[in-house]
Design goal:
Layout (H helix, E strand, L loop, with lengths): L2 E4 L4 E6 L5 H9 L9 H9 L3 E8 L2 E11 L2 E9 L8 H15 L4 E7 L3 H9 L3 E10 L4 E9 L3
Parallel strand pairs: 5-6
Antiparallel strand pairs: 1-2, 2-3, 3-4, 4-5, 6-8, 7-8
Helix pairs in contact: 1-2
Length: 158
């Protein structure tokens, strides 16, 4: 994959998720309360599924963020995404999302969906900056704490 993007502060390199990366993803989520909590086994299992996408970003040789998603038919979904707090706003999240949208598009996806905690206004602004629009709300979607989700979507062009 080899997508690189960054600022003077860091340079993020995006690559495919490997099973050995699962513990780093769990550690990133531990410092990202807005992200969904998954087990190491869940990441590995998803990576083995048909249509799955797992990407990690590396900054200075260390995993700094990740994105996992899946594709069914011509629709794709971002299931979870997080970037280490110290590496936010340095381009890694954008590089991950751009790489995922490119991958989904190359596989024939026409649209990409995701859900965001209603309180996570920063994430919503990030996704809107990358072409997503708010499409709805799902009451009681998240747990710990209980919270609604805002649904978002972007159309991909061939």
């Amino acid at each position: 994959m080899g997508v690189e993007r960054g600022t003077e502060r860091s340079l993020a390199r995006v690559r495919k998720f490997l099973p050995r990366d699962a513990d780093a993803l769990v550690a990133i989520v531990a410092e990202s309360p807005e992200a969904s909590t998954w087990s190491e086994e869940s990441y590995v299992k998803l990576a083995e599924e048909n249509g799955a996408l797992g990407l990690v970003s590396e900054t200075n040789g260390e995993i700094s963020g990740f994105l996992v998603g899946r594709m069914v038919g011509d629709q794709a979904e971002v299931l979870n995404m997080a970037v280490r707090a110290r590496d936010r706003r340095t381009g890694g999240g954008g590089a991950l999302l751009e790489a995922a949208l490119k991958d989904f598009g190359l596989r024939g996806a026409k649209c990409v969906y995701l859900e965001v905690r209603e309180s996570n206004t920063g994430a919503m602004a990030f996704y809107e900056k990358h072409g997503f629009a708010r499409t709805g709300r799902r009451k009681g979607y998240y747990r710990n704490p209980d919270e609604a989700a805002v649904t978002m979507e972007t159309k991909l062009t061939g």
